[in-house]
Write a structure and sequence with these properties.
By secondary structure, this protein is α/β, with parallel strands linked by helices. 30% of the residues lie in helices and 27% in strands.
Length: 211
């Protein structure tokens, strides 16, 4: 029990480092004009760069990723596979929809096909969760998407900068900034030190001769 807080402190420190790297990538990408997303075999991982999708068109129905919270409001992210002008495939995040609001019919011609190239959403799911490629799902089944829509696939997802009503743009900035994770790491570290001191004090008392 005394060692556990140190593991949690290390985990929070690692999370802070990841968020700091994310912010550095976003800061360098926001001021850069979008470039066409073109498939390359040796392309690196999604790095939050601004991209454009000229000539792209929807390749299939949308999927709605459940349990996607915007602040404290529960909703779902509306994603759709798109085929780009070079024939490659990309998953596009059209926006976020609050639970209880019906998904609208979206006209692709009205969309501004510019956004940030980001990693896939990572969801913690329990046994029995539904992974799929269309409709309301708990997780994205990328293997099934690749099988249904053959061709080269870009890693990650393109989060559009502007979403059509009633959808809302999914924020690219993280909700928890690095400073918050550093603070949590310091709290866990302090708790671990206090537990170790308490354990040391108990051991000393147990070895003291009884009067």
């Amino acid at each position: 029990m005394a060692v556990l807080p140190f593991f949690l402190a290390a985990w929070q420190w690692q999370r802070a480092q990841e968020k700091a790297e994310l912010l550095r990538s976003l800061t360098s990408a926001i001021g850069v004009p979008p470039v066409s997303l073109v498939y390359r075999e040796a392309r690196p991982q999604p790095e939050f760069s601004r991209v454009a999708l000229p000539g792209a068109h929807p390749a299939g129905p949308t999927l709605q990723l459940e349990n996607s919270y915007l602040g404290e409001v529960k909703g779902r992210r509306v994603l759709q596979p798109w085929r780009l002008e070079d024939g490659a495939m990309a998953l596009v995040d059209l926006g976020w929809l609050a639970d209880g609001v019906a998904a609208p019919a979206i006209d692709p011609k009205t969309l501004s096909l510019r956004g940030h190239w980001m990693p896939l959403p990572r969801h913690f799911v329990l046994p029995g969760a539904v992974a799929g490629v269309e409709g309301r799902v708990d997780a994205i089944d990328m293997a099934a998407l690749r099988q249904r829509y053959p061709g080269h696939w870009h890693q990650g997802v393109v989060v559009l900068e502007h979403s059509p009503d009633p959808l809302r743009h999914w924020p690219v900035l993280p909700e928890f900034m690095p400073e918050r994770h550093y603070a949590y790491a310091a709290q866990w570290l302090l708790l671990g030190l206090l537990l170790l001191l308490s354990l040391h004090s108990l051991r000393r008392r147990s070895h003291e001769p009884r009067r």
